[in-house]
Amino acid sequence: MKTPRAHKQTPQTSRSKFRSKVSLLRGEILTRIESVILGVVTSLSKDEAPVLVLPNRSSWANVSFDRAIGLQMHSEHSVTSIRSDCPSSSNQIHFLCSFVHKWEYFCIVCLHRDIYYNNTQLFVSQRSVDSIVDDISCMLKIPRRSLHVLATSKGLISGDLCYLEEDGTRIDCHSSAAIPVSSNISGIRNIVSSAKFVMIVEKDATFQRLLDDDFCTKLSPCIIITGKGVPDVNSRLMVRKLWDALHVPIFALVDADPHGIEIMCIYKYGSVAMSFEARSLTVPSVMWLGLLPSDLQRFGLHIHDFLLPSPRDESKLSSLLLRPYLSSQPEWRKEMELMQQRKVKAEIQSLAAIDPGFLTNIYLPNKLLYGGWV
């Protein structure tokens, strides 16, 4: 008996199916937004104060840890109720729902700042818009990029990487100057790279130093990216995109202090506030390359090169040691306990006390060559 031949899918068929899928997604988004607005109108028709019920995005009780995903929000989670006759936050959310609905209806992409400048008196600050967009996304159970609302990126990227933006613009990251991380990560396509690894750099100052020293071509082809401290969502999405596309090791270079460690954990395990989008934001394979607390004596740093932890540092470190994901990282815990015992911390820049070129010429090459990560 002959094996049935597979139906050959033509480009027209593929495009047709893609358009149908997009239309279905848009229809679902519009339906969910309209359901929220209908609830508001129904309450008003009964002379009742409309109430919005939002998942509580700040509670650790609402998240669980999965080694393959990171921190993710429970399906059964505590909620926060916002009444329209209370503070202006509910008015902001109502306005944003109608604004997003308009953009979804006309299928146009807008930036967070577009929403803010549309009504600066209502929103007061750009940060409030960012938080409300995430609340709306979490409430509707729809990634915010699917709402056609994008945020301006603060991150930078450089190295052996080329790709196309959604509008067809070709981006080449080989330049000695840094390239801003895209505001539309989901639209990136045709990624081309020979990078052997990706390195997340905590601070912009360290990132710029690596650029100045031509780090990305000296050792082996690689990609470096920084979120300039606590990473924005686009920087996290970009790291995840590279991990999915290139299947190369992902390293983190952060200060040997509690805040650097927490930033690294955000890339690897996610954050409580964005746990509802964990699957697209976390990179569970991230490895801690440096600066390790155990490196401080190994590389001959003197006590005057160290910094004394503040009470806030000590409190942050204690809270980190209680995080659920530390049980799966005994080597990380060991390094953090060493920091706690010695009561010292150090910035990456402290390596310059040994030699101005120590970071790029000795420290990182040796770490990468001999497997000095945890």
UniProtKB/TrEMBL annotation:
Compartments in which it is found: Nucleus
Reactions mediated catalytically: ATP-dependent breakage, passage and rejoining of double-stranded DNA
GO CC terms of this entry: nuclear chromosome
The EC number(s) this enzyme carries: 5.6.2.2
CDD domains the record matches: TOPRIM_TopoIIB_SPO
EC class: isomerase
Main subcellular location of this protein, as a coarse class: nucleus
Keyword DNA-binding annotated: yes
PROSITE patterns with a match to the protein in the record: TOPO_IIB
Keyword annotations of the record: DNA-binding, Isomerase, Magnesium, Metal-binding, Nucleus, Topoisomerase
Alphabetized Pfam families for the sequence: TOP6A-Spo11_Toprim, TP6A_N
Active site per UniProt: 117
A GO molecular-function annotation: ATP binding
Coiled coil: none
Domain of life: Eukaryota
Cofactor requirements of the protein: Mg(2+)
One BP annotation, GO: reciprocal meiotic recombination
Family membership: Belongs to the TOP6A family.
Name used for this protein in its record: DNA topoisomerase (ATP-hydrolyzing)
Organism: Kryptolebias marmoratus
